[in-house]
Amino acid sequence: MPRPDHAAAIVAIGSEMLSPLRSDTNSLWITERLEAVGIRVVRKSIVGDDVGAIGAELDAAAASAPLLFTTGGLGPTADDVTVAAVSRWLGVELRRDAAFVAKIRARFEARGVRMPAVNEKQADFIVGARVLENPRGTAPGFWAAGRGVEIVVLPGVPSEMKEIMTDSVLPELAARAKGESIARRVLRIGGTGESAVEELVEPIYRKWAGHPVTILAAPGEVQLHLAVRAAPERAGEILAAMESDFREALGPRVFGRDSEDLATSVGNLLRRERKSLAVAESCTGGMISSLLTDVPGSSEYFLGGVVSYANSAKEQFLGVSPATLAAHGAVSSETALEMARGARERFGADLAAAVTGIAGPDGGSEAKPVGTVFLALADGGGAIWRKRFFGGDRTVVRRAASLAALELIRRRVAGTLAHE
């Protein structure tokens, strides 16, 4: 398969990133900046500090894209082998630059510190490569060409990497791009599974076949990632048309776009409709309240909540009838409805939501297995309830139930429950 034009691959180098203690964040920043100049990242990878492994990974990256970036492994210690690995892969020599050794030594002396001998290694330059000045550190970057690709070698320290990219790399890439950029949009969909979303938007996929569209399942939602590569003003027009077509196919299932999460969407609706909200939680243990209050300004519409974990709390604070609990149990539609009505009455809210369920790992039965959750809403128009089942461990069930409650609230306030 031929390599795509205007494409890049990023190789993060460092054995520490293969452990559970560190993660690669540089590639996220690089990807965002490359897209701004019309370059799409088609491959990302992490490899340890091993010359052979780095060479093998560069082989794979070069097969994917004509522009490669590496980050990390430019330090003075023995495990910093990136420069040696890249020079070996390119088939060129390293040459120690005496003037650069003196420059590093002067930087140390300016701080009143003797330069360790190991730092001389950072003056080993890849023959034929352009040296990229590093104002923040002693390790320079390199921009080399060979084996049918260009390779930009960058430090792993984020502040150093960003300054080199901003000052020495991105301006040249932007000039090559001839004014093109990549515009992105994320549509966030609630209350509908990934396969159902796929069926709804399949005709729209075909219409926009020339532009990448990715569907992703995320906790409590499905996301559509749209991308357009064109001149900035044209990219915006195309993206707006794409978004309009996908929104028309999905209707009220779309709750937000880009960074607008479900709790923010609910808050915006409540604010717009001038409605107040209260919640009554059992198995979610306050998670719904936490999600709601994570949104700045939520005091405008969120009055409060009750975590009624024990039956006695349901009775005392929400007015759930002991007879209801005895006849139907704490995990039931009847109890959920009384919890919602009780929360609405006690807080004086326009709308109240309630959740009760079995998060596990114990407490399930054949009739009500772990993951069984009842949701209820009460407002001036009456009350409704829904039964859901969520697979997964305790944490997954609690979060899924919380997001399901927010989605139910959203649809109730928006007046679209009939679309379920």
Features:
Alpha-Beta Plaits, alpha/beta, Maf protein, 13 helices, 3 domains, 40% helix, Molybdenum Cofactor Biosythetic Enzyme, Chain A, 25% strand, 420 residues, six-stranded mixed β-sheet
How is the topology of this model organized?
Layout: E1 7-13, H1 26-36, E2 40-47, H2 51-64, E3 67-71, H3 82-90, E4 94-96, H4 98-110, E5 124-126, E6 130-132, E7 141-146, E8 149-154, H5 158-176, E9 181-189, H6 194-207, E10 213-218, E11 221-230, H7 232-250, E12 254-257, H8 262-273, E13 277-281, H9 287-293, E14 302-307, H10 311-318, H11 322-328, H12 333-347, E15 351-357, E16 372-379, E17 382-389, H13 394-414
Parallel strand pairs: 1-2, 1-3, 3-8, 13-14, 13-15
Antiparallel strand pairs: 4-5, 6-7, 7-8, 9-11, 9-12, 10-11, 15-16, 16-17
Explain the overall architecture.
The model has no long low-confidence stretch (mean pLDDT 94). The chain is an alpha/beta fold. It folds into three domains: 7-176, MoaB/Mog-like domain (Molybdenum Cofactor Biosythetic Enzyme, Chain A); 181-257, Alpha-Beta Plaits; 274-419, Maf protein, CATH 3.90.950.20. It has 13 helices and 17 strands. Strand 1 (7-13), helix 1 and strand 2 form a beta-alpha-beta unit. It has helices at 26-36, 51-64, 82-90, 98-110, 158-176, 194-207, 232-250, 262-273, 287-293, 311-318, 322-328, 333-347, 394-414; strands at 7-13, 40-47, 67-71, 94-96, 124-126, 130-132, 141-146, 149-154, 181-189, 213-218, 221-230, 254-257, 277-281, 302-307, 351-357, 372-379, 382-389. It is 40% helix and 25% strand. The longest helix has 21 residues, at 394-414. The strands form four sheets. It has a six-stranded mixed β-sheet, with helices on both faces.
